[in-house]
Structures are given as structure tokens and as C-alpha cells.
Design goal:
By secondary structure, the chain is an alpha+beta fold. The chain has helices at 4-7, 11-63; strands spanning 88-94, 104-115, 119-129, 139-143, 146-154, 160-161, 172-179, 191-198. Strand 5 and strand 6 (160-161) form a beta hairpin.
């Protein structure tokens, strides 16, 4: 007579089955955790890349306008004395306001600073009227986690320098921007991009 069909599994069989199930579940969990970590890391890199592109586009939009002056009443462009490898000061005639009375020459500065709200390594824009001086209260945060911001000033002969004052006629600027992840546990590498910005009102 077969008693196994009457009494079910033995204790040994249950232990073996439990051990096999545990190993299978552990393997599945490990694969899930690994795939989830890869997904989160890739998602973080996508966010960093989008952040980089947005930051560069904002820089390009205004740097291209340096020197724009349809009134021909001002001396506008790149401030060669104030612009350096790590910050840039430009000026142009801002006629974007709907009210013509609000059209005025402005100057802008881009640099990295330590923000009380957004933390260190924050890319900011400062915009004031041409006749005014920059101050810390006019800073507008644009991008966080900026590891490096570098400008290279180039003339029509493609000779470039990290010092704006060393270039007599600046035709275009190479902007280097590097960002890092604030989530260290992902071990995400730094990302960087370089963009060449041609100044629409230079070297005509």
C-alpha cells in the first residue's frame, strides 16, 4: 500500500522545495533590483542631459544677441574687461517688451554661485539696465549641479582664447558646460557638452 498519497509530502521534501523556492525568489529579486538600478541610473543621466541642453540653450539665446542695437545709440557687445574664462558679461538692446517705452539697453552676466536655496554650483543670470551695476539680488538661478562653466572667445581666424580681452574681434564663443548628479548612490558619471555660439552682430 502507498501511504504517501494519504499523508502528503514528507518534511524533507518540504524543506527541499522551500530551499529551491527561496533560491528562485532570490534570483528573481536580484534581477529586479539590478534592472531597477540600471533604469534609475539611465533616467538620472537623461535628466542630466536635458538639464545640460536647457542650460546651453539659455546661454546661447542671449549670447547671440550681444551687440544688437537697432538704434545705433550705444556701444554694446561683449564686455572684454569683465568677461573671463568662467563668467561672461554681454549687453544688447532689449526690444522684446510690448511697450516700446520699455525698450532699453541691458547687460547680462552668467556665472556660477553658491545659492542659499539651490545649493552650490548654481548657474545664474544677472540682468540689469546698462547704466546700473550688478548686485547679488538680481541673480536668477537657471541650472543646478554645474561642475564647470567655461568660455572660449574666438575671432574670425578661429584663434581662441580664455580671455576676452585678448581677442580683438570676437566672432563666436565656445561654451563648455559640465554637470553632475546629486544622487551619489547611482554612481552616475559627470556629463558635459560644448556649444559654439555665433554672435549675430559680430564680424559682419
Amino acid at each position: 500500500m502507498n501511504y504517501r498519497s494519504n499523508f502528503g509530502f514528507t518534511l524533507v521534501e518540504l524543506i527541499v522545495a522551500l530551499a529551491i523556492s527561496t533560491m528562485v525568489l532570490a534570483a528573481v529579486y536580484h534581477v529586479f533590483i539590478s534592472n531597477n538600478r540600471i533604469y534609475l541610473k539611465q533616467n538620472e543621466m537623461v535628466k542630466m542631459e536635458q538639464n545640460l541642453r536647457s542650460g546651453l540653450n539659455l546661454l546661447e539665446r542671449n549670447i547671440r544677441m550681444a551687440g544688437y542695437d537697432p538704434t545705433e545709440n550705444y556701444t554694446l557687445g561683449i564686455d572684454k574687461d569683465a568677461s573671463t574664462e568662467n563668467l561672461i558679461v554681454i549687453s544688447y538692446y532689449d526690444d522684446t517688451a510690448e511697450n516700446e517705452e520699455e525698450h532699453t539697453p541691458v547687460k547680462l552676466m552668467y556665472d556660477i554661485y553658491n545659492s542659499d536655496t539651490y545649493g552650490a554650483y548654481t548657474l545664474a543670470k544677472r540682468k540689469v539696465a546698462l547704466s546700473k551695476d550688478f548686485d547679488s539680488t538680481t541673480r536668477q538661478p537657471l541650472m543646478t549641479n554645474v561642475e564647470s562653466l567655461e568660455f572660449s572667445y574666438c575671432d574670425k581666424n578661429h584663434m581662441c582664447s580664455n580671455t576676452a580681452s585678448a581677442i580683438a574681434d570676437i566672432c563666436y564663443i565656445k561654451v563648455f558646460l559640465q554637470t553632475f548628479s546629486s544622487k551619489d548612490h547611482f554612481q552616475t558619471p559627470d556629463l558635459n557638452m560644448t556649444k559654439t555660439v555665433y554672435i549675430r552682430n559680430a564680424c559682419l
